[in-house]
Structures are given as structure tokens and as C-alpha cells.
Amino acid sequence: MSVRIHLPSGLVTFMFTDIEGSTRLAQMLGSGYRPVLSEHRRLLRSTLAASDGTELFTEGDSFFIAFADAAAALDACLTAQRALASHEWPTPEAAPRVRMGLHTGHAEPLAGEYASAEVHRAARIAAAAHGGQVLCSGATARHAAPLPPGASLLDLGLHRLRGFDDRERLFQLVAPGLERQFPRPRTADAVPHNLPTQVTSFVGRKVERAELDRLVNEHRLVTVVGAGGAGKTRLAVEVAGADVETYPDGIWFVDIAAVTDPGLVAFAIAAVLGLRPEPGRPMAETLVEYAASRRMLILLDTCDAQPAACAEVIARLLTGGSGVRVLATSRESLGLPGEVVWRIPPLSVDPGPNGGPSDAIALLLDRTVAARGGRRSSPAEAADLERVVARLDGLPLAIELAAARLRVLSASQLAGRLDDVLGALDAGRDEPEQPAPSTPRWIANQHDTVDLAAAALGVAPVAAARAAQRSATQRHVTMQATVTWSYRTLGPRAARLLRWLAVFSSPVDLATVEWLLDDDPLDPLSVLADKSMIQVEPNISGSTYRMLDPIRAYAARRLVDAGEEQSARDRHVAWSLHALERAYLGPDDRPVTLSLYPLDPLADEMRAALRWTATGGSARQGLQLASGLDQWWRERGLAREGRLWLFRLYGRIAETGERIPEAELAAAYHMHSLHAGADGEFAEELRFSQRAESAARQAGDAGLQARVLAGRAAPLIDMGQLAEAERVCREVIAWAHQNDVSGDALFAVYSLAELLWRRCALDEAAELLGAARPVEAARPVERARRSVDMLLGMVALSRGDLVAAHDHLVVALRSRMAHGFHGRACDTINAIAVRCAWGGDPVTAARLFGAAQATRSAMRSTAGMFGPYWLEEQAGLRGVLGDAAFDAAYAEGAELTLEEAAAVALAVDHPDLAAGSIRFSGVEPPAQRSRSGRESIHAESPREILDHYEHPGS
């Protein structure tokens, strides 16, 4: 007891002190603890002797002192802490770390003691402090003027003290010679968590939130894994924030990105929990002991910054007690037993429920409103915004950066710039645009965490800790910084694979990766998958591997920087040519009936390969690629795109002077002519047809010459020179027969049959087509189109023979749909519509006409020679149904997909062949009235038709 016997009354400042970790210190020092404790008491009492403090009692390592003046109390604390810090203790570990707490309130002494709640409040404040720290209440801060020279009070905010219902504002004494960085005060907050407060709204991810919440409730360790910028942290915080009431001992957020050394991970977690290092004891043991009896959720963010150290600490926490759960975010899994690895998907780009916007669009719209000062996007921008989110693969960070670009760009301008994803998103953001206006509380705690851990280990000064935090924060300022964060952790083989995979535009399988590297890629591929640099998509035939577009753009830049672009892209072109070749061959390497469906998934790769051949590679290989897609361009309504690629390749040839064989030029010009005709550019069609003929003659290849000459009729027909076109067809057919290349003149046979149909020479057309059937059946690249059956069906329609028309057209439509010839399928659906019109089903006819026209319009392709005929038949049908009924049925058909329209057409009942039925329609069609006197052709049976294709020589 102090010699001072007078106890202050009225406004009294109470001070409590004790040694933090005194039990541990006593165990460590043994018999050496008593001298340390005594010296600690001596220093405090000598300080108090010079102040106005009255010592009420001393118990163990604790002091309870009363002051009549708050300023004197703060001055005494400052002097005492400086004396303790400057004293020479037996060893640095033996230095006692004393915590002090002050509170000022009205109190009256009674019988040498105080019976007041203010005393208990002061005790709780002291209990909230850490060793070396001085905390005081708001009341003490108000009455403590003047402060000691150089001293100030740091506002730590409102805190709930144990046993008190209200919240107390706490201040920390800051002065030279005093430690400044401490964990958060040890208080009993009503909502025990330190989750970061978000300044923007959380958009979408309803399904993901529910799924992740379920996993966290069912498993003790869940790791949210995904690429940088995928929204892992934001989703994890959102899920954790909804579960605060579930964990009575709190939810604690720790950002490992701020940790500069593996040994500091346990310190970072402990500091957030309010724990300080205990002398002579590993921090991990202190952490495990504290958590063992508590029910809490620890959210470890960015574990990939220190994966091994995080895994070790998490393992010890989980085995040390059953009440602790860990929700981690990382770009790679931790590899711990019992770990549930949940890969965060990109934001959905599919329409939401009831036709609402997708999650990706909703996020872009929300952030665009902020970027544009509260102005919403106009409905006219909807299509371009859809293009933006699709191009960004639903990556949240990329979408946020895109919204920022919409401050200065329209949606269409931004969509047009996304071929250079990084350039468009990162423009003007190489450095943060402006510093944050203030440091959030949780960030400040992370600063304290690193500083405390560094002081404990002696490895990282304060400046380095600040730099680490800035680096961790800025890794999401640009897409390039985000991906670099992961790229720098890759080994040489994985980094090279990432760079080389950038040449692919779509998912690839394992065999493709092996082709690319000419090496076993399993090890580096696994590394990239584990680090979320690629997305693994399992399916029945085997996993495929996909790279998000922003990551691909980054990898492509690295590919150029490494000087590997030429080799990697040439290798990709070689793979593309090989893939095209395989599409034309069967398992036995023999040609098979051409189907265009295998070419559909190759389209993006072919475009990427063509882009390289037109800018930095071989134009000759580019022509080979374009040739492999010859029919695909036109059947997908992409004839114009095919022409543009050819023009670019011609320019590349002129630029490099690359030698192209005449035969290959002739094939390219011929293909160009067909594209131009399909695109309605008839003058260009004729010009390239003439170029093809000239090059073919110089090549000296009879088959090639026949194929090119067979195409000469098409531009003549398109320009209305029908007689000249017929003469050319007959000459080509005769010339091909003389040179034993009749099969190569098949296109001339089709053109001549169309011309004969047009001028009502139906018998000659039927005879010509009958002779062409085995030739067509013998040619794999042409037989799937079933042009013979289509034209025989048209001849039968002109004769009014619905049975023959039905048989031929159904065979043609089935084959065309089965093999992906969509443009030609539209012609066949139109023909079946005519068959329905003359078979007594005008409504179905109108629906089919509407469906075929809708598909044609979507493909932006012309109707060809039969266009006028379809219009004529539709006009007659309108007269039968009336305008309203025709338009309703036509509009209903326009809503059908091509597949649905084909199903409707193939479901049309076969004409009645029962006894007494009339084979021909009861009404003579307009075409038949102009072609009277002709006899009907005989329809071959389905078995006879199939025989021609199964046995081409029969």
C-alpha cells in the first residue's frame, strides 16, 4: 500500500496495470522471475512517487492507482512505460510488457476503498490493452489536458467492454519512446468480427452464395479457388458476413497478401485475434491454445501469397480444437486432408430468371452507373454490353475495369477495343489513379500485424510492411498486375506452357496440348490448373482446358516478350491444318462423307490461325486453311468473312512475295468466286472465276480445270445470261468426259439441271440427274449435300408428282441436316413447303416458308436460283389462306430454329398411296400449267436411292 493515505474524491482517474503474459514469463524464467517482478514494481513505484497517484493495492503483477488529475495519470503512464522500456533487463525476453488502462469518473472513497462501477470500467479498459500499450476512456481523454510534450491520443473507435451494455470510445497514448503498433483492443464487441466494410453493392451469385454457405457449414476447411480477379474475396466476405451470429467467438478476416515472410503467418492471424507473442513460446502454440476452446470462423484471404505456411498454421488450428472453421481464398488449393476445394465460376453470362439480365450484365450495369455519375446505360447499348461481358468471360475484376472505361467510351467503342483486352481495361491505370482517402480499420490492423510480427522476428521493418501492403492492394488495380501476381509463382515449364497456350482461342484437350509442346504436358498443366491459370472442364470424352480471355491476353504478351511467338503460332497453324485434315478422314485415314459439324468447334481456332498467316506467318498455309473451310463458310452464312480472309491473304502474298503454286491459287480463286456469288457480289464472282480458270490452265491439272470451269456457269446464271450459262455447262461436261474427269464437272451437271428445270425441260433434267447419282455418291466431299435428290424433288414438284417430290426432298433434307449443310437445308425446307401447299396443308407450308426465310436472314445469304420460285409459291399460298392467316403462320414459323423447322418438315405425312388414291395433286401447279404435255418422272424407291450411296459403282 502506498504511503499516501488520502484518497481523491469527486472526479477521479483510476489506473490499472499488469504484466501481459506473466504466467508464461514466470514459467520461462523460473527462479529468475521474482527479481524481474520486483524490479518492475520498483520502477512503477518510483514513477508514482513523483506523481499524484495513490496506490490502493498491489497483487502479484498488478497495480491499482487513483489520481485526482487525469493529466497527471497519463503523464505517470508515459513515464512508467519509458522507464520499463529503457531499463536493462537480464535478457530481452525477460523484459516485462506492462499494459495500462485509465478511466475518469465521479467516485467517493469509503473505508479506504472505492465501490463504484467506474473502477470496473477502468479495469476492463486495462484488460483490453496489450503489453506496452496505454489505453484510456473518452472521459479521461476529455480531462487530460494538457498532454505531456510530444504526446497525443489516437482514437481507436467505439468498443464494448465486458460486463457493460454501452460502448466506450477508447484512445491510445502515442508519444516518443512508446510502441505504437498493436493489435485491436481485446474488447467484447457485440458483433465480433473485423470483416471489411464494402463500399459497393454485391451483385448476383445467388446460387454460388448458397452453395458456399452450405459447404462452410458442413466442412471445417473450405478453400475458394479461382483466377485473380474472379471475385473470391468478395464472395467469401459476403458469405461470412451473413453467418456472424453463427460464431459466438467471431469471424476474423486476415489478408495474407500483406505478409512478407512465411514465419509471419501465425503472427498475422494472432494479431487479428488480439494475441501478442509470449516470451519463449512459438506464436503458433499461443494461437492454437487460444482457439482451442472457441467457436469461430477464420477467413484467410490470398493464401497463395504464403501457401505452405498457411497450410501449416491451418492444420494446427483444425487439429487443436473442434470449434474453429477456416474459409480460405487462394489461386491454388492448400493440399490439406479434409480440405474442400470450391472453384469459383465466372459470373454467369446467361439471362437471369424471367428474362432478367445475367449476373455479369447486372454487375456491369451497376458499376457503369457509378462510373457515369449516376447516369444509366441506354437500352440501345444492351447488345454491345453483352459482347463486352462475353469477351471478358464473366471475370468480375475485368468487368469492374470495363465499367471504368465506360466513363470515356460508349459500349460499342469498348466492345470494339476488346481484341486488346489488357490495353482496353488497363488504359490509364498503370498506377493507382489516386490514393485512398482514408485507411479502413481492417487495413490498419494488417499494417499492425506485419509490424508486430516483424518486431517479434526482427525481419521486416515498418517501411517494408507498408510496401508489402501497397503491393497487395495494388495487385487488383490492373488486370496485368493481377495476372502477374500468379505468373511469378510459376516454374519455367509451367510458364512456357501458359505462354504457348495463349495461341489457342478455345478449350483444348490433352492431345492438343501434347501436339503443341511435343512433350508430356501433364506436370506443367497440373500446375496451371492448381494455380487457377487455366480452367479444367471435365466431360465424357476427357477433360478440356480453357484459359480466360484476360489471362490469355496477358500470356500472349509474355509470349512476345519471350521471343517465342513465331514458333508457337507456326505450331498452332500446323495443328489447325492437321485438325482440318482429320475432319475429312475416318479412323482408317480414308475419306469419309463430309460433315460440317466437326468444323464448327474448330472455327475460332481457324480464325486465330488465319489471323497469324495473314500478318506474320505463311499466306500459303492460310490459303490451305481457308480451303479446308470452303463449304463451311457458305453453309454458315459466312461467305463475306471468307472473302475478307482471302483478300487479307492476297495482301500478305504481295507483301512477302511468297511463292504460291498455280494449282493452289486456282483453287483459292474458285473458292472466292463461290463465296462472292453466295454473298450477292456477282461482278466479283465472275472476276475471280476468270482468274481461277487462268490459273488452272497454267497448272495443267485436268481435274482442277474441270472443277474451275464447272463453276463458270454460276456467275452467268446470277447475271441472267442463262443461254450462255447452259452452253458453258454442256461444253464443260463434254470436255471433262473426254479427259476422263467427269466427276470433277459435277457442279456443271447441277447447274445444267437447274437451267433445264427453269425452262421446263424436265425429262432431260431427270435423265441428267439420274446419270449423275453414282458420280455424286462416289465423291465424299459432295455426297452429303444430296444435290441430285434436291433437284429431282424440284423436277417432281414442277410435274405435280407429290410422291416423288416427297421421297426425294425428305432424303435430301435428312442428309443435309445430318451433315450440317444449313444453307442448302433452307432450300429443301422451302421445297417441302411447296409440296405441303400442293398437298392440301397450306398452314404448314406457310410456317415452313417463314422458318426458312428467318434462317436465311440470320445467315445473311441469298436465295439463289430458286428465289423467284419460292416467292411465286408464297404469293399463291397467300391467296389461298388470306393475308391474316398467312402472316400468322409465317410469323409462327419464323420463331422456329432450323432444327425445329426441319423436324416439322420431316414430320409431314407421306402422300397417300392407298388403292384408289390420286398420285398427282388434284390441282395443276402454276409451273405445271406452263409445262403441260410433260410426263411425270418415276421416283426411285428409298432402297434404290441408298444403293447408289452405299455402292457407288452400281
Automatic annotation (TrEMBL):
GO biological process, one term: cyclic nucleotide biosynthetic process
Organism superkingdom: Bacteria
InterPro entries per record: A/G_cyclase, HTH_77, Nucleotide_cyclase, P-loop_NTPase, TPR-like_helical_dom_sf
SUPFAM superfamilies registered for this protein in UniProt: Nucleotide cyclase (SSF55073), P-loop containing nucleoside triphosphate hydrolases (SSF52540)
GO terms assigned for molecular function: adenylate cyclase activity; ADP binding
Biased composition (Basic and acidic residues): 932-954
PANTHER family: HTH-TYPE TRANSCRIPTIONAL REGULATOR RV0890C-RELATED, REGULATOR-RELATED
Name this polypeptide is given: Putative ATPase
